[in-house]
Amino acid sequence: MSRVLELLPAVDVRDGQAVRLVHGVSGTETAYGDPLAAALNWQEAGAEWLHLVDLDAAFGTGDNRERISEVVRRMDIKVELSGGIRDDGSLAAALATGCTRVNLGTAALESPEWVAKVIAEHGDKIAVGLDVRGTTLRGRGWTRDGGDLYQTLERLNSEGCARYVVTDINKDGTLQGPNLDLLRNVCAATDRPVVASGGVSSLDDLRALASLVPAGVEGAIVGKALYAGAFTLPEALAAVAGPEAAA
Ligand SMILES: O=C(O)c1ccccc1NCC(=O)[C@H](O)[C@H](O)COP(=O)(O)O
């Protein structure tokens, strides 16, 4: 396991545009233009990973499959693909883009048998997104309750889930800082790596997340802070690279 926190700049795609939402709520979009331009920008700035989300597929308002495929095709870096991957067809389409791994959310809540099957088939190409308000999971683009975080985590652990992407919805897109207690609690309940998502606002937030690497936090998704110019990606990479980052 890497001792350096991995950073995953986010490109969330809605209606063909790179956007940021607040609390993941449909209709709160701020648009940031062409998703490919955004992704290429993060790649050129030194990203090793891209977190790419099809928000329309997540919300059930269509999809951006062509654009998403094009973005993945143009990346030389690793891509984590999320949004609306819920059955054999959408999983096959997602994996066919050439992405490094996919992130299942709703399916893990509504189709546990299918998720157990695809975890067994695809191993660490599958991560599960645990998107929570408090300790209640949310599915269908974070619009519906989907059960208890820790019960679901126990089930997924026993099924061999390789990795979790943990989002505090109350923090997402707000620049209020990550929920470190939630991340510590999830890390204590699993021996699988955890990718933190939602709320990063500053280099200090990234240093705080880097301090959780020994506990099991492997990476951090960063959206709004990069788009809002709170810091640059090279600054972020430098902040988590040095020995002082984990102090
Ligand atoms: O990932 C999803 O499937 C998803 C579904 C519905 C709403 C939002 C969704 N993802 C949002 C993200 O993954 C954000 O890009 C990420 O949490 C970054 O948050 P922030 O740094 O707070 O902008």
UniProtKB/TrEMBL annotation:
The keyword Amino-acid biosynthesis applies. Its main location: cytoplasm. It is found in: Cytoplasm. The active site is at 12 (proton acceptor), 131 (proton donor). One of its GO terms (cellular component) is cytoplasm. Keywords: Amino-acid biosynthesis, Aromatic amino acid biosynthesis, Cytoplasm, Histidine biosynthesis, Isomerase, Tryptophan biosynthesis. Its EC number is 5.3.1.16, 5.3.1.24. GO terms for biological process: L-histidine biosynthetic process; L-tryptophan biosynthetic process. It catalyses: 1-(5-phospho-beta-D-ribosyl)-5-[(5-phospho-beta-D-ribosylamino)methylideneamino]imidazole-4-carboxamide = 5-[(5-phospho-1-deoxy-D-ribulos-1-ylimino)methylamino]-1-(5-phospho-beta-D-ribosyl)imidazole-4-carboxamide; N-(5-phospho-beta-D-ribosyl)anthranilate = 1-(2-carboxyphenylamino)-1-deoxy-D-ribulose 5-phosphate. It is an enzyme of class 5 (isomerase). It comes from the Bacteria. Pfam families: His_biosynth. The keyword Cytoplasm applies. GO terms for molecular function: 1-(5-phosphoribosyl)-5-[(5-phosphoribosylamino)methylideneamino]imidazole-4-carboxamide isomerase activity; phosphoribosylanthranilate isomerase activity. Pathway: Amino-acid biosynthesis; L-histidine biosynthesis; L-histidine from 5-phospho-alpha-D-ribose 1-diphosphate: step 4/9; Amino-acid biosynthesis; L-tryptophan biosynthesis; L-tryptophan from chorismate: step 3/5. PANTHER family: 1-(5-PHOSPHORIBOSYL)-5-[(5-PHOSPHORIBOSYLAMINO)METHYLIDENEAMINO] IMIDAZOLE-4-CARBOXAMIDE ISOMERASE (PTHR43090:SF2). Belongs to the HisA/HisF family. Involved in both the histidine and tryptophan biosynthetic pathways. This is Phosphoribosyl isomerase A. It comes from Streptomyces aidingensis.
